[in-house]
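WARN retry 2 of 3 for item q-0093 after timeout on previous attempt; input resubmitted unchanged.
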Amino acid sequence: MPAPEITASARDSHTAVWTGNEMIIWGGRNPRPLDTGARFILASNTWVGMPTSGAPDPRFGHSAVWTGKEMIVWGGAYAIDGRTNLDSGGRFSPKQNSWVTTTPLEGAPSPRRGHTAIWTGKEMIVWGGLTNALESIPAPALWTGARFDPLANCWFATVTNGAPHFTLSERNFVGLVPSYHSAVWTGNEMIVFGEVGSGRDIVAAGARYKPLTDQWLDLVSTRGPSPRLRHTAVWTGTGMLIYGGIGADASFDPTIYYYTRSKPVYLYKKP
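OK item q-0093 returned
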């Protein structure tokens, strides 16, 4: 298959979603924050440009989810040094090829970047991330979030009682963009995993959030991964696979960890 003509400029720290027949990329930086994007149609191996009229402000380190009908973009940083975060976003419809601006609403999360966002089938749940200030180390992390209902166009704050207090450690640097924790959707709850503490007191932590009851539940730590950040996690349909990341001693762990709700332990495999 010949390479398609590229219509999206080179960038990093952008987002990408899959609609079922095309990939939509948007935002990022090169080197300044961008408010542009493009759609890659896999079947025809072609790129299609996206309108900038009505698009959110330029940003990077934001989140994007696909609802089945539209892409919802939220949060991120506006300034190159990552010190100016946003609490706004937008909704893009490929069918209409147009944007609808999502302005800050009552109950919306505070401005942040490097957070996670998942789609439940009805709502987008935004959680965690970094605040504007980066002068202090460990970097100021957030353990708050909210749920956005696109049909009602409103936010519902998530309870913080029982939520893990993830914190970036001294080995991280100013301007860090990637999420330091992971989040997956199981079908009825969101599972987050990362690390808490700083210096020699870093420990692994995680929790399960149930939007139906607005409740956080503990995540078993038996045979679980060591403390880490900037790892990846996916939901298989029956369990959560965790891979990689940077450990408390700045080491890399090549072990694959598997968490399943049917057994209250982590199983693990080395590649």
